[in-house]
Amino acid sequence: MLHSPLQKCYKRMFPFKLATTSYIYPDRIVPNVAFLGPFFDEIELVLFESEGQDNHPDEKQINELINLSRSLEVGFNIHLPIDIFLGDKREEARSNGISIVKRMVDRTLCLNPSVYTLHFDLRDKNGQDETDVESWQKRIIRSAEEILACGIEPNRISVETLGYPFEWIEDIVKKFGFSICLDIGHILIYGQDPRLYLEKYLPAVSTIHLHGFQNDIDHLSIDRLPEPVLNIILSHLRTYNGIVSLEVFSIDDLKRSLIVLEEKWGEG
């Protein structure tokens, strides 16, 4: 049985809730939560793939997660599958994405997650970017309406910043009352300005995905972030009370991220 090499508890250490992913160890969700739960305020349950069920908790695992949440005093936020295309021209693909979101919400709502992170992907199922943005926006609106029909509170859906300007969906997010997931790695890897995003959107941000990138590879330790960028991020986090998820996928990247976060925080 694996034993967590983390030695320090980070619960309630910051004004925000500190989280990391449920795939730090190459194992299923429940063992990861058991190892990581004692150290974090929340765990980001990553349900990235909609097809295979390997990382989707069944009823037994849901009950285990409920018990772990209580015993370890750890909360959850949920990253919905990323292989869904809610703006696809094809009705079948769009409807399938809506059904997947509803099914995942229905299965996990008993975990009382703080937020569900959702992608409004510009791509279609074949990986092609939509060029008619206005038509894509209309399809996104229809998908949002159908998703909210399941009864979930809009602000518990956190729409993630992706590879296109967030202005393209800003009005949609406001219209429905969604919150925002600010993914720092995505912002940087696509050449956008994190300071502008933080200054403009932080009041509506429920979740921040914090990770580094190098050579066009993201989800690395935050020690890969340029120091000026990290300083900008941390200066905004001092008055932020949402969720910050160290969105990395290995224990080495997590440990390095925690070291950098704690050291830089102490300098402020």
Keywords:
268 residues; alpha/beta; TIM Barrel; globular
What does it look like?
It is a single chain. The chain is of the alpha/beta class and 268 residues long. The chain has a single domain (17-267), classed as Divalent-metal-dependent TIM barrel enzymes (TIM Barrel, Alpha-Beta Barrel), CATH 3.20.20.150. Helices cover 40% and strands 16% of the residues. It contains 9 helices and 10 strands. It has an 8-stranded parallel β-barrel with strand order 1-2-3-4-5-6-7-10. Strand 5, helix 5 (167-176) and strand 6 (179-183) form a beta-alpha-beta unit. Helix 1 (29-36) packs parallel to helix 2 (59-72), helix 4 runs parallel beside helix 5 and helix 7 packs parallel to helix 8. The protein is globular.
Summarize this, please?
By secondary structure, the chain is α/β, with parallel strands linked by helices. The chain is 40% helix and 16% strand.
**CATH class (first level) name:** Alpha Beta
Helix-strand string: EHEHEHEHEHEHHEEEHEH
The low-confidence parts are none
Write the CATH fold name.
TIM Barrel
Query: What helical percentage do the residues reach?
Result: 40-55%
The helix count comes to 9
Number of domains: 1
Q: Strand content of the residues, in percent?
A: 15-25%
Rg estimate, integer Å: 18 Å
Approximate shape: globular
Question: Largest sheet, order of strands side by side?
Answer: 1-2-3-4-5-6-7-10
**Architecture, CATH level 2?**
Alpha-Beta Barrel
